[in-house]
Amino acid sequence: MKISRPYSIIEDKIEGEEILKRLERYARTCYKSEDKITADSARRLIKKLIDRGHESMLEHETITVRAICDRGISHEIVRHRLGSYAQESTRFCNYHSNGIQVIKPFFFEGEKYRIWKEAMAACEKAYDALIELGASPQEARSVLPNSLKTEIVITYNLREWRHFFRMRCSKTAHPQMREIALPLLKRFRDLLPIIFDDIPDK
């Protein structure tokens, strides 16, 4: 059994200024104000649109992220309806030969961590025993834990990413979700000025 920590990778090469310029061109179609485009007008226009709640223009651009997290967190991610997903399948992946991989809940220490680790080892032992008795991976998966590591590829448009971060960086979000979402929001802010600056991260 391997114990890991969660992380995420932005799959796209993001040229933030180019995205802003494209969004400006799309938005100015509504007003036929393309003649007002200047070298630095995109930031001002996109900020004004966001401030006014006119976020539909943000739907024209998408970003894809690969998240490595536990199955419980992935179940929350796919609750976001306006996205596309590709996820590691417990129906078809056979974890018997290499052992299962689990994501450590950062909030468990001491005795709590010991109990969690023993439970994960018991799940792995049961999974292996079922496979050795001839169960298929899709049958044996019934004993796999929520802490099982999964990879999920997520594609959202920028408006949905804003919604995702508003929900998943909130203090009321699951602590392990925030463990993924908060660092990702910081990277989005660095790569895409203006678009994510107003979303709270505390």
What does this molecule look like?
- By secondary structure, this protein is of the alpha+beta class.
- It has two domains: 6-87 and 149-191, Gyrase A, domain 2 (2-Layer Sandwich), CATH 3.30.1360; 96-143, no CATH class.
- It has helices spanning 16-31, 41-51, 71-77, 110-132, 137-140, 158-168, 175-191, and strands at 2-4, 7-10, 62-70, 83-87, 101-103, 149-157.
- It has a four-stranded antiparallel beta sheet with strand order 2-3-6-4. A two-stranded parallel sheet has the order 1-5.
- Helix 1 crosses helix 2.
- It starts with a strand and ends in an 11-residue tail after the last helix.
- The mean pLDDT is 96.
Q: Give the overall shape.
A: elongated
What's the story with the biggest beta sheet?
A: 4 strands, antiparallel
CATH topological fold name of the largest domain:
Gyrase A, domain 2
Quantity of strands, as a count: 6
**What portion of the residues fall into strands of 2 or more residues?**
15-25%
Task: Please tag this protein with its features.
2 domains, 202 residues, alpha+beta, four-stranded antiparallel beta sheet, 6 strands
Describe the structure concisely for a colleague.
The protein has 202 residues and is of the alpha+beta class. 44% of the residues lie in helices and 16% in strands.
Indicate the topology:
Layout: E1 2-4, E2 7-10, H1 16-31, H2 41-51, E3 62-70, H3 71-77, E4 83-87, E5 101-103, H4 110-132, H5 137-140, E6 149-157, H6 158-168, H7 175-191
Parallel strand pairs: 1-5
Antiparallel strand pairs: 2-3, 3-6, 4-6
Helix pairs in contact: 1-2
